[in-house]
């Protein structure tokens, strides 16, 4: 078997296993089976998101090639710690009931502004202050919102984030295979040559079908998961295009090498980064109606 294929299979298996253990009750059950009462599932989830945040932020700093002498490079992580800490207090440590606030609206708006800047005004990101702002918005805010998605108590942990990953993986797979067999019209040939509108359409339809089955078998989850499937199928490709455009802007092939055969954290979580704020906003609106 090809060595690169073995690397991809091994890297993908480790990454998938880590996600499953930290986003479902399985992780805490396994650990507490060895040492009862050692950990709660929400602590594993918090650890996973924290790791993703700082690994992703480090990769973003490397991609954007800050001036080694600039002050901006040295304040990226203190600011990220501050932002993540503030969101953690609201979403994680004190519980959260989807009471929408102005700060969250502004944070979501900043993500939109950052994406528009990347595609339409990328020259602004050649300056270190622009790189600083983009890195914080692109990493700290989405991963902070991720803390609000699951519901948990001292004895229970819900599966919203696990099934979000399932839908993202499904969307990528469905779009790939539909595009491979039926794709003719390129979606963004300069940024991601393999993406086609036919693949996108197939991804939307089949991911909504996957969302339907999640909704049928897990009615306890927040929201309607056919709608979540639609949102994921639409915005997951955008997340991939955002990261591809970021790497293209700065002449980088992969965000890192932390996952053998798959690249870096940003390469694996590009869709997650964009889908999380969208799904969070949907849950808020659904709760208000």
What does this structure look like?
By secondary structure, the chain is mainly α. The protein has one domain (3-288). Helix content is 72%, strand content 3%. It is built from ten helices and two strands. It has helices at 3-23, 26-34, 41-64, 71-93, 102-120, 128-146, 160-182, 197-217, 225-249, 265-288; strands at 186-188, 192-196. The chain has a two-stranded antiparallel sheet. Helix 1 packs across helix 3 and helix 6 packs across helix 10. The longest helix has 25 residues, at 225-249. The model has no long low-confidence stretch (mean pLDDT 87).
List the helices and strands and how they pair.
Elements: H1 3-23, H2 26-34, H3 41-64, H4 71-93, H5 102-120, H6 128-146, H7 160-182, E1 186-188, E2 192-196, H8 197-217, H9 225-249, H10 265-288
Antiparallel strand pairs: 1-2
| Range of strand content | under 5%
The SSE string, one letter per element, is HHHHHHHEEHHH
Helical segment count: 10
**Strand line-up in the sheet with most strands:** 1-2
How many distinct domains? 1
Compute the number of strand runs: 2
The 3D shape can be described as: globular
Residue windows where pLDDT falls under 50 for at least 5 positions: none
Radius of gyration: 19 Å
Structural class: mainly alpha
Membrane topology: Multi-pass membrane protein
Catalytic activity: a 1,2-diacyl-sn-glycero-3-phosphate + CTP + H(+) = a CDP-1,2-diacyl-sn-glycerol + diphosphate
GO molecular function: nucleotidyltransferase activity
Protein name: Phosphatidate cytidylyltransferase
